[in-house]
Amino acid sequence: MPVFTGLTRPDDETSLQRIKAWLHERAGIFYEEKKKELLINRLQRVCDRFGYSGFPELESHLLGSQSSELQSAVIHAATTNHTYFFREPQVLNYFARHIVPSLPNEKLRLWNAAASTGDETYTLAMILCEQWGIGETAAKVSILGTDISAPVIAQAESGIYTFNHLEHTPPSLIERYFQPTGIEQYRIRDEIRHLCLFRRLNLKLSPYPFRRLFHVVFCRNVLYYFDKPHQISTVQALYEVTEPGGWLVTSVTESLRDLNSPWTPVTSGIYRKMA
Ligand SMILES: C[S@@+](CC[C@H](N)C(=O)[O-])C[C@H]1O[C@@H](n2cnc3c(N)ncnc32)[C@H](O)[C@@H]1O
């Protein structure tokens, strides 16, 4: 049976490889050959949106001009933004039960790197509010959510979600922290929204531009889109912006084991910068 590649001309293939190299260079996003079909479909959607006849035209605009709208659209199309509230309870429980009680009694800074649409960032805010109440959390904590993709940051700032983002959220928390705004649509309450600040940040560009170190960094479900050298440089750069004694939370499926990193493993998905 013939394999459909979606590409019919050799110049399409050449352009695809150049766009792929641009993505890797710019964002660290690495598409293995077996994911080629996925990349083709995603880039095709960008061609359709911008009215380009194919990948050679996309390539010439992408590489030949400084159109940040096009660059942003290609990066957004190439990223996987799947996320939802209260993802991976195992590490969230560890955060709530062990990390939060161990944090110093001072103004706390949390960073959610690769936050996508903000579900994870607001999840952290809700966990803290459950422990400390909204008033104390607001006085004590600032939470930064960042992502390379502009549209997801815009959605995070809006705080509006369809119910599929909330399927793993306990109903009592939906009631406490969300307002229904339409059919199967919810808005995070302003008190929670105001605890979180969202910005664009490319994890490929280190050192990261922060003046103060973070007490806790969440960086989940993004490292596996990077190749090994970029994984190594990312976890090192995260280390450098973390307070001594601070924490890194990854997904349980992302191990730092082979990355020769300075982080001390604590348990699955949990790492610490030893003081
Ligand atoms: C699968 S989502 C993970 C969202 C959330 N951390 C979670 O675990 O549910 C991966 C996110 O990483 C972002 N991303 C990919 N490459 C990035 C880079 N170089 N810098 C910052 N964010 C990046 C994507 O835009 C996407 O929103």
Secondary-structure map:
Layout: H1 10-27, H2 36-50, H3 55-64, H4 68-78, H5 89-102, E1 108-113, H6 119-132, H7 134-140, E2 141-147, H8 150-158, E3 160-162, H9 171-177, E4 178-182, E5 185-188, H10 190-193, E6 196-200, E7 214-219, H11 228-240, E8 242-249, E9 264-267, E10 270-272
Parallel strand pairs: 1-2, 1-7, 2-6, 7-8
Antiparallel strand pairs: 3-5, 4-5, 8-10, 9-10
Can you characterise this structure?
The protein is of the alpha/beta class and 275 residues long. It folds into two domains: 10-78, Chemotaxis receptor methyltransferase CheR, N-terminal domain (Chemotaxis Receptor Methyltransferase Cher, domain 1, Orthogonal Bundle), CATH 1.10.155.10; 89-272, 3-Layer(aba) Sandwich (Rossmann fold). It has eleven helices and ten strands. Strand 7 (214-219), helix 11 and strand 8 form a beta-alpha-beta unit. It is globular and about 60 Å long. The termini are far apart. 36% of the residues are buried. The mean pLDDT is 95. S-adenosylmethionine is lined by residues 27-29, 79-83, 87, 114-116, 120, 147-149, 152, 202-204, 220-222, 225.
Write a concise keyword list for the protein shown above.
single chain; 275 residues; alpha/beta; Chemotaxis Receptor Methyltransferase Cher, domain 1; Rossmann fold; 10 strands; binds S-adenosylmethionine
Principal-axes geometry comes out as globular
By CATH reckoning, the class of the largest domain would read Alpha Beta
Secondary-structure element pattern, one letter each: HHHHHEHHEHEHEEHEEHEEE
* Strand line-up of the largest beta sheet: 6-2-1-7-8-10-9
What is the CATH fold-level name of the largest domain? Rossmann fold
Name the poorly predicted regions.
none
Fourth-level CATH superfamily of the largest domain: Vaccinia Virus protein VP39
What structural category do the secondary elements indicate? alpha/beta
Counted up, domains total: 2
Number of helices: 11
The CA-CA distance between the termini, in Å, is 59 Å
How many strand units? 10
Based on CA atoms alone, the radius of gyration comes out at: 20 Å
